Amino acid sequence: MNWVHDVEFIQCLYIIAFALFIYGLMGLTGPRTAVRGNKIAAVGMALAVIATLLLPGMGNWWLIVLGVVIGTVVGVPAARNVKMTAMPQMVALFNGVGGGAVALIAWVEFRHSNGFDGEPAYVAIASLFAAIIGSVSFWGSNVAFAKLQELISGRPVSIGKLQQPLNLLLLLVAVGCSVAIVAGSSSEILIILVLVAAAVLGFTVVLPIGGADMPVVISLLNAFTGLSAAATGIALNNTALIVAGMIVGASGSILTNLMAKAMNRSIPAIVAGGFGGTVTASAGAVEGGTVRSTSAADAAVQLAYASQVIVVPGYGMAVAQAQHAVREMAELLEEKGISVYYAIHPVAGRMPGHMNVLLAEADVPYDQLKEMDEINGEFSRTDVTLVIGANDVTNPAARTDPGSPIFGMPILNVDESRSIIVLKRGMSSGFAGVDNALFFDPKTSMLFGDAKASVGTVIEELKAL
Amino acid sequence: MLVQNLAVLVLAGFVGFAVISKVPNTLHTPLMSGTNAIHGIVLLGGLIVLGLGVEGTLNKILLVIAIAFGTINVVGGFLVTDRMLGMFKPKPKAASSQATDGSDGEVKR
Known about the structure:
The structure holds two protein chains of two kinds. Chain A is α/β, with parallel strands linked by helices. Chain A has three domains: 1-74; 92-275, no CATH class; 296-464, TPP-binding domain (Rossmann fold, 3-Layer(aba) Sandwich), CATH 3.40.50. The N and C termini of chain A lie far apart (76 Å). In chain A, helix 17 (397-400) links the parallel strand 4 (384-388) and strand 5. Helices cover 58% and strands 7% of the residues of chain A. In chain A, strands 3-2-1-4-5-6 form a six-stranded parallel β-sheet. Chain B has helices at 2-20, 28-38, 42-51, 57-86, 92-97, 100-108. Chain A: Its main location: membrane.
């Protein structure tokens, strides 16, 4: 059985493993093949782990088992129990620990080889690159997690004009120490400085970013972690790490770009921060308007006599866990012969596709879910548009007010429909911290209260009609 | 070795672009979570460095943490993606209103 420990055999297993990754990801391109695709990728991962354990000279088995057991005990229940609404921060957290692993491995590599003594320069460079990016990704993801979990304020935290120079300084410290290490210094304080500077950089880059931009940031950090994994692969001369890491780096970049485009924002502008910060205060274009509130009974009557209704769900619907009630209401309306669609903005919720997941969970058939470009022409033909916990993605200021911070962002043209009912907890502004002119539109009536309770009352009223 | 690895790196980048750019909007969240699970492959790095022998307690502790982190990333990532994707199965009601070949495909799986 010596051949199983043959390095070339193990390399072949790696090739099969990353072929499975690629094949699995191809499966993710359609809802029908996606579950299988994910499983195929998981099989690839299992194969890669087994192949690695077969490497000649493997030891420290107890410690390996210990690490894997701890990881499983923490990871499995977290993944099993997390609510669908909390998915973005869960992904941020999983992404963060990946980055943390990269940074730790780079640190041990440094210690183990005595400051990369006797190693080729590229090993040192790749390891240090991994250390910087991994550390940024770990701390950045944790900040993103804390913001989305509302452990810290989701609002942009501004450090003022000092922010850019500070970030630049931190980057220079990390890179400078790295250069010193590559040049031959083996003092451990340098690698610690690299890791700490990168960690603080992770904080200062993500902290000022407003909650609305958070999905883009998580996606960016996801791509970063992928790249750092690829760099670790270069340092360790491991093909599986290089291929898998690079695929994630490439896909993450595409996804980040798609998301940024959907919000009409450039990635550098997002990373520069300050979205919805102090600028917003001056954008009070809707001052002095009046807001009309309505009751569930009136809303039910309005809905019952419509011929077409569009539901615009947002993160507020998810927070209130109202998606099941919304689906029930939609079914009641359909029984009355009213056509019901759901208008999904590309960045509705806190991740692209987040709303689709939540509505799919509530058994909404996915042919009723319409993307922005598909549905925007329909609003003018719609009697009632029901905005449930969505805000910024419906704000007409994005089209009309060049002074608004969200000007230029593609939005759902909700204001074109004949009447609008907005379900909202109160008059607070959206995640971007911008007032919404839609709420002051004479066609709009507001139904204040918890979305789930409100929809529940509307359902009762509809049944009673 | 470096040149070969760089070649692999560049090609993998293009494969990533080619495969991913076809993913529909609806599946972006599961895709992010799925690729997230895949970069948990750094677990292998921890296994290699620890398994092939390091000295010192601190090194070992750091690597056990790294392996635990990597495992959380992999196991958690794939499980969460699976849960999300499980919700995308067409519902009986939706299947009846769609073309019949769609529901056939589901039965076979």
